Amino acid sequence: MAVMGADVIKVEPPGGDVARTQPPFLGDDPHPEKSGLYLYLNTNKRSITLDIRQAAAPAVLRRLYESADVVIEDSPPGWLAAHDLGYEALERTNPRAVMVSVTPFGQYGPYRDYQATDLVALALGGLLYISGEPTREPLKLGGHPSEYFAGLSAFSGALIALYHRDGTGEGQHVDVAQVEGIASAQGYSSLGHGYIHEDRKRMNAFAPMYRAKDGFVGAMFRQDNWADFCEMMGRPDLTTDPRFADQISRRDHMDELNAIVAPWMAEQPKEDVYHAGQAKRMPMGYICDPADMLASAQYQAHGYFTTLDHPVAGPLQYPGMPMRWGEDAWDLRRAPLLGEHNQEVYGGLLGYTPAELVLLRNTRVI
C-alpha cells in the first residue's frame, strides 16, 4: 500500500517493532535499524512510537483513527476492544474507516485465543499434509509463507472494503485468519476429499531436481520434449527404451532415469542447461540463489531491484513490486527510523503542541 501511494503510519512500541530484532542484520550487528526483515517490510512508511499500555495512549490512538482510511492491527482478538480501541471505537470515531484484523485463527470460534507460528498455520491449514516425500514425515516449506499470505489477504480485503466504502459510505471490519489463508492456498486437497473421497498424498516429485556443476536444475520430461532432452544429453537411444517410453513409464522408472541423468547433469553449468532447455521450449529452470537473482538479466531489464540509502544501514538493494501500471514506475523509499515521524504526525497531523509532545515523551507514552 505504501509503495502504491498510501500514507502508511506504522505505530511501534517505544522499543520498536519486533521485526527490528529479527536477523539477518547488516554486518551481523543486532542494531534495531539494521534488521534486513524490518528494512524490507517497511519501505515508504512513516514510523511513530506509542506505548499502548499507558493510560493516556488510547486517547492518542483514537485521534489517529479520526483521519484514517484503514487501520491494520494484529492484536489478540478482543484486546483492542477491551481498551476501547476495537472496531466499535473506530466506527464511532470514523464510520467510513476500515479495520483489518490479522490473527492466527480469526476473531471468533473455539481457536480464536490460540497462538500460532508459521509452522502451526501450515499444519492446521493442511499444507504440511501434502508437503515432502511420501516415506518421510511432512516437510515445512522454507520461509514464512502463511504470514506473507495473511498479509496478502489483508491487503486484498482492505482494498475490497475501501471499494465498498466508496460506494456506500460504510466502513467495515475485515477479519483475516492466517490458517484459513493457507487452507485456501491448497484447496485441491479439500476438493479431492469432498468430491471424489480421496485425500491427496505426498508423492515423489515428477519434476526432479538435479545437482548441476554449480547448483541445481529442475526439469520436467513432457512427452513433447522428451526426445529433445535425450538429444541434449547425447543419448538419443533413450527415446526407444521402453522404460522411458511415456510419462507414466518414466514416472514408474524414475530411479533408473535419475541414475542416467544425474551424472550428465553434474557436469553441466546450471544456466547453460536452463537456456539450452528453454531454447527447445522445455519447462526447465535452475535454482537461483540471491546472487543469481541480483545478476539476472530478466530482473535487471525490469529494474526490479532498487538501491536505497538508509542513514544507519547505508545503501542496500531492495526488491521492488511484482506488478506495474503502464509506464509508471514505483517510488520506493527507505524504511523509517524508530519514531522518526513523531513530530510531523503528532504535531503536524494530530495537532499536539510542543509542550504536549514533551509531556507525552516524559511520561513514556511515545
State the main characteristics.
3-stranded parallel beta sheet; single chain; alpha/beta; 366 residues; 10 strands; 2 domains; formyl-coa transferase, domain 3; 16 helices
Structural summary, described in words:
- The protein is of the alpha/beta class and 366 residues long.
- It has helices at 36-41, 57-65, 79-82, 87-93, 118-124, 145-168, 178-185, 187-195, 226-233, 247-252, 254-265, 270-279, 290-295, 297-302, 342-349, 354-362; strands spanning 9-12, 46-49, 70-73, 98-103, 173-177, 209-212, 215-219, 284-286, 306-310, 314-318.
- It folds into 2 domains: 9-190 and 297-362, Rossmann fold (3-Layer(aba) Sandwich); 209-282, 2-Layer Sandwich (formyl-coa transferase, domain 3), CATH 3.30.1540.10.
- Helices cover 38% and strands 12% of the residues.
- It is elongated, with a radius of gyration of 26 Å.
- The two termini are 25 Å apart.
- The mean pLDDT is 92.
* SSE string, helices as H and strands as E: EHEHEHHEHHEHHEEHHHHEHHEEHH
Q: Order of strands in the sheet with the most strands?
A: 3-4-5
Low-pLDDT parts are: none
The CATH topology name of the largest domain reads Rossmann fold
Distance between the termini: 25 Å
Strand content: 5-15%
CATH class of the largest domain: Alpha Beta
Name the helicity range.
25-40%
Major sheet summary line:
3 strands, parallel
The CATH fourth-level homologous superfamily of the largest domain:
Crotonobetainyl-coa:carnitine coa-transferase, domain 1
Helix/strand structural class: alpha/beta
Gyration radius over CA: 26 Å
CATH architecture of the largest domain: 3-Layer(aba) Sandwich
What's the average pLDDT? 92
- Care to count the β-strands? 10
The figure for the number of domains is 2
Which geometry do the CA atoms define?
Answer: elongated
